[in-house]
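Risk register update: the risk of archive-format incompatibility is retired. Evidence:
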Amino acid sequence: MKYSLLRLTNVRILSQVLFFVFFILSLYAAWTSRIFGYPVSRLMEINPLLLVSTLLSTGFVYGFLGWSLIILGLTFLFGRVFCNWICPLGTLHQFTGWLFNNKNSELLRKKNTYRSRQFIKYSLLIIFLISATFGALQIGWLDPLAILYRSFSTTLIPTWDMLIGKLGVFAPDKVIELLTFKPGTTERIFLGSFWIGVLFIGFVAVNIWHPRFFCRVLCPTGALLGFLSRFSLLRINRDIEKCTDCNLCLTRCEGACDPQGKLRLSECLACLNCLDDCPEDAIRYSMFNLDQNQVRPAPDYSKRKLVFAGVLGLISYPLIKINGKTSNDAYSPLMIRPPGSVEENEFLARCIKCDQCLNICPTNVLQPAGFLEGGFEALWTPVMKFNIGHCQQKCTLCSEACPTGAIRKISVAEKMGKGPFENNGPIRLGTAFMDTNRCLPWANEIPCVVCEEVCPVAPKAIQTKDVETKDVFGELITLNKPFIVPDLCIGCGICQTECPVTDQAAVYVTAVGESRSQYRKLLLKHRYQEEG
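Archived output:
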């Protein structure tokens, strides 16, 4: 069985390939909308760190996150199998290490020996969980699935489509349509995608220097599963009577878990390469007759490190909060959230920056937020940029893709304020304003009613009034000068997108008046009532 096609390492490779294909299909289904009903966020929803962190930050388990209990069950049975059997980012790291680490066996054994810096991921886990407990959910920075979805959605897929599009006349249209993720549309752009791509490529490229560096040193999901794997029923067991201390088991050890000595159970990724590499069959994967003297079940983590990480976690919360513009009284007008988004503080307690909503948005209006919008806390969370696109009136795809409920699931009827939602009115994303110093009829006496024509609501939120005036030549002309009716505006942004003043639109939308918050009305009557 050791050299047969059914050996465990081949089963593991098959599992890695299948889950990576599942990940690519989820991206393709969301980006093209070709595969209706495909569970685009299911892979994210089986993430146990997402379950734990959102439970701490919100107090409940949202939607399908309960499926991650399956991964926890597998961890208690088989150890840290998620990292090396399921996680697509782990698969990518392993493939990169295998591709470039063509070193001699002695050097590989040195690279795959346990290093003290592997404790860092446990410190990061503690910091993230403490911050989440206070409502600052920041696991998206280093959660492997969030990194993968964000990087592919905003950087790698647009790059791929751009390169395929350059084929032009060199390939038939059907071939280009098949190879691209969003056929029949213009190329997408995402603000700040350069730095998202640099971070992702850096994580992957460091495997050349240090195999599985991210998994061994930085991954908070791996840290959580590593802590739980100490209770696993099955694990690697070394027969010291057969072992000749050749250390060949270190040659391809993915977790740097020291299988040749006292196995560090919390670091073992269950890659099972050591079973294939051992020439004496001294290593087996079993739950029976385990030698407890040949294992270190707990992470290499002292009480001093625990206290230090806890203090950093407590300090990180206020530092994150004071760096942003997320309070009700000092919010950024540039942070216009997708339709169905919950109130801002709750939104930040749920959003993990996976940017799946950006991937599924058909108009490219959703963009990753930068530092200017909401500071560090809101970095890479979704915001609407109406100079790029607009929010389609009957589209609710972003609410279908969100795995944590930061964007709650809404129907078209609720978004438009129809049927049973008529009394609540339509969901308002913000309010449009007119800059008369840039508007063509107002400032330049040039006829233009584009914003009024494209306004989708009825009655229209942008209306016009006839004004007779003399032009520069002294001739009497009649201009239709547009103006905003704030009570009718839903903040869809199509007026800003279509405004012919291209450098800086004469009509623009801000977050004020959004229906998700009582504290962001255009006129803060409640504030004066409370003071009175």
